[in-house]
């Protein structure tokens, strides 16, 4: 037996219940991982509220964790008992003391990195990796915008983009978060209360931006489009303020033959070689200190509801980790 946070119906944080559940042996191709830390991400909120549908109920939510392999099923060769591992891919089920997961979704955690770092950086860090290196390969000298720049993905992206030689315009909700974004590489920081397109026009001398990375969703979608140069790309990768309704595609023509993409980490890491490649890119920049992973909040796993309340109230910065 083990303990996990489960939801029996979708809704608010109070729907998450700490329960004892059976712990099966790993099936062929699986590994049993004893979690040392579990990551907290906004996608967890989406599954809890029902914006994203769990395969069935009751469900254990959570996409990201780090721990030690206790056993492996038949056919597993890349991972062995005793390995320190981390993961950040489907299926959900990370909000547990231990779980079985497909071994090909696990990557070995380098020795210098802690379990808390592993749980804090895999989903957010690999998201940043595919966004800036594959979805829109950012080049030195470009000026780009990052919404929610003081959040977990935002802080990683600000550092990584600066490391790539880009100029980062970060968007945040408070002056406190503005200072945090500047400290992590944002050359310019705008508040959500600003006239953001006007400020971008001023900063860029009227050139506007080749790309905007937007995890906020509904509240910022049109603002992001207005910040783009002709042929620019809007990368909408989150729904923190709610889902984006598909607009009249004519708006993209009217605003300069723009591009819009709605990428997911799952698609970009579906092949194991891509998963390992993105993980190695992440481990490289973290190990070199070009990107520092900030675990600014921790909560006991059994108190995951409190963590969700803090996340939704925008009271968190950087990464948050749940400790079994």
Automatic annotation (TrEMBL):
Coiled coil: none annotated. Residues 11-322 form the Enoyl reductase (ER) domain. Keywords: NADP, Oxidoreductase. This is Quinone oxidoreductase. InterPro entries: ADH-like_C, ADH-like_N, ER, GroES-like_sf, NAD(P)-bd_dom_sf, QOR-like. Signal peptide: none annotated. It comes from Roseomonas nitratireducens. CDD domains: QOR2.
């Amino acid at each position: 037996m083990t303990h996990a946070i489960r939801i029996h119906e979708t809704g608010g944080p109070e729907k998450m219940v700490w329960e004892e559940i059976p712990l099966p042996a790993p099936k062929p191709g699986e590994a049993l991982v004893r979690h040392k830390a579990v990551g907290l991400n906004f996608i967890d909120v989406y599954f809890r509220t029902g914006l994203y549908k769990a395969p069935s109920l009751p469900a254990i939510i959570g996409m990201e964790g780090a721990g030690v392999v206790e056993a492996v099923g038949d056919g597993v060769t890349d991972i062995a008992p005793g390995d320190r591992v981390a993961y950040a891919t489907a299926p959900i089920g990370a909000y547990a003391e231990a779980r079985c997961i497909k071994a090909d979704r696990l990557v070995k955690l380098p020795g210098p990195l802690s379990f808390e770092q592993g749980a804090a950086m895999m989903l957010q860090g690999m998201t940043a990796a595919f966004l800036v290196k594959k979805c829109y390969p950012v080049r030195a000298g470009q000026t780009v915008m990052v919404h929610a720049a003081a959040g977990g993905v935002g802080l990683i992206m600000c550092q990584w983009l600066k490391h790539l030689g880009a100029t980062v315009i970060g968007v945040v909700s408070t002056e406190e978060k503005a200072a945090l974004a500047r400290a992590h590489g944002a050359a310019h920081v705008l508040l959500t209360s600003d006239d953001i397109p006007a400020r971008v026009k001023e900063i860029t001398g009227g050139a506007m931006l080749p790309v905007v990375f937007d995890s906020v969703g509904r509240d910022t979608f049109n603002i992001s489009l207005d910040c783009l140069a002709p042929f620019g790309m809007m990368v909408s990768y989150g729904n923190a303020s709610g889902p984006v309704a598909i607009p009249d595609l004519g708006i993209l023509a009217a605003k300069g033959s723009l591009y819009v993409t709605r990428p997911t980490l799952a698609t970009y890491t579906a092949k194991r070689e891509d998963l390992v490649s993105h993980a190695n890119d992440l481990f490289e920049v973290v190990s070199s200190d070009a990107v520092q992973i900030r675990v600014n909040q921790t909560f006991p796993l059994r108190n995951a509801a409190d963590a969700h309340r803090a996340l939704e109230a925008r009271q968190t910065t950087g990464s948050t980790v749940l400790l079994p």
